[in-house]
Protein backbone atom coordinates (compact mmCIF):
# COMPACT_ATOMS: atom_id res chain seq x y z
CA UNK A 1 0.00 0.00 0.00
CA UNK A 2 2.72 2.47 0.99
CA UNK A 3 4.64 1.56 -2.13
CA UNK A 4 1.71 2.57 -4.33
CA UNK A 5 1.41 5.93 -2.53
CA UNK A 6 5.13 6.54 -3.01
CA UNK A 7 4.90 5.83 -6.73
CA UNK A 8 1.94 8.17 -7.06
CA UNK A 9 3.82 10.93 -5.26
CA UNK A 10 6.88 10.41 -7.44
CA UNK A 11 4.77 10.64 -10.58
CA UNK A 12 3.10 13.80 -9.29
CA UNK A 13 6.47 15.40 -8.53
CA UNK A 14 7.79 14.53 -11.99
CA UNK A 15 4.70 16.12 -13.52
CA UNK A 16 5.22 19.32 -11.55
CA UNK A 17 8.88 19.49 -12.56
CA UNK A 18 8.23 19.02 -16.26
CA UNK A 19 5.38 21.53 -16.16
CA UNK A 20 7.72 24.37 -15.23
CA UNK A 21 7.82 25.59 -18.81
CA UNK A 22 5.44 26.63 -21.60
CA UNK A 23 3.14 23.66 -20.99
CA UNK A 24 1.48 25.87 -18.36
CA UNK A 25 1.28 28.73 -20.85
CA UNK A 26 -2.37 29.55 -21.68
CA UNK A 27 -1.44 30.08 -25.34
CA UNK A 28 0.15 26.64 -25.47
CA UNK A 29 -2.82 25.01 -23.76
CA UNK A 30 -5.19 26.70 -26.18
CA UNK A 31 -3.38 25.12 -29.13
CA UNK A 32 -2.82 21.74 -27.47
CA UNK A 33 -6.47 20.74 -27.77
CA UNK A 34 -6.03 17.07 -26.77
CA UNK A 35 -3.82 18.02 -23.83
CA UNK A 36 -0.96 15.59 -24.56
CA UNK A 37 1.65 18.30 -24.03
CA UNK A 38 2.53 18.63 -27.71
CA UNK A 39 1.00 20.74 -30.46
CA UNK A 40 0.48 18.63 -33.58
CA UNK A 41 0.13 20.24 -36.99
CA UNK A 42 -3.55 19.20 -37.08
CA UNK A 43 -4.15 20.99 -33.76
CA UNK A 44 -2.30 24.07 -34.93
CA UNK A 45 -4.12 24.16 -38.29
CA UNK A 46 -7.51 23.71 -36.61
CA UNK A 47 -6.95 26.84 -34.52
CA UNK A 48 -5.48 28.86 -37.40
CA UNK A 49 -3.70 31.45 -35.27
CA UNK A 50 -3.65 34.96 -36.68
CA UNK A 51 -0.58 35.10 -38.84
CA UNK A 52 -1.33 37.71 -41.48
CA UNK A 53 -0.33 36.57 -44.95
CA UNK A 54 2.30 34.09 -43.80
CA UNK A 55 1.51 30.43 -44.54
CA UNK A 56 0.71 28.80 -41.17
CA UNK A 57 2.52 25.64 -42.29
CA UNK A 58 5.72 27.66 -42.65
CA UNK A 59 5.26 29.14 -39.20
CA UNK A 60 4.68 25.69 -37.75
CA UNK A 61 7.80 24.29 -39.40
CA UNK A 62 9.77 27.28 -38.14
CA UNK A 63 8.70 26.68 -34.56
CA UNK A 64 9.21 22.91 -34.82
CA UNK A 65 12.97 23.27 -34.74
CA UNK A 66 13.76 19.57 -34.25
CA UNK A 67 11.40 18.65 -37.11
CA UNK A 68 9.57 15.87 -35.26
CA UNK A 69 6.19 17.16 -36.43
CA UNK A 70 5.17 18.50 -33.03
CA UNK A 71 5.69 21.77 -31.22
CA UNK A 72 6.81 20.93 -27.70
CA UNK A 73 6.74 23.42 -24.79
CA UNK A 74 10.45 24.19 -25.19
CA UNK A 75 10.07 25.04 -28.86
CA UNK A 76 6.97 27.09 -28.10
CA UNK A 77 8.79 29.07 -25.44
CA UNK A 78 11.74 29.65 -27.78
CA UNK A 79 9.32 30.97 -30.42
CA UNK A 80 7.82 33.41 -27.91
CA UNK A 81 11.26 34.59 -26.92
CA UNK A 82 12.17 35.22 -30.56
CA UNK A 83 8.97 37.24 -31.07
CA UNK A 84 9.90 39.59 -28.24
CA UNK A 85 12.97 40.79 -30.10
CA1 LIG B 1 -1.73 17.81 -28.62
CA1 LIG C 1 9.38 19.55 -32.31
From TrEMBL:
Query: What is any Pfam family matched here?
Result: EF-hand_5
- Transmembrane segment boundaries: none
Residue ranges annotated for the EF-hand domain, each copy included: 51-85
Sorted keywords for this record are: Signal
- Signal peptide positions on this chain: 1-22
Which Gene Ontology MF annotations are present? calcium ion binding
Q: Which domain of life is it from?
A: Bacteria
- Descriptive protein name: EF hand
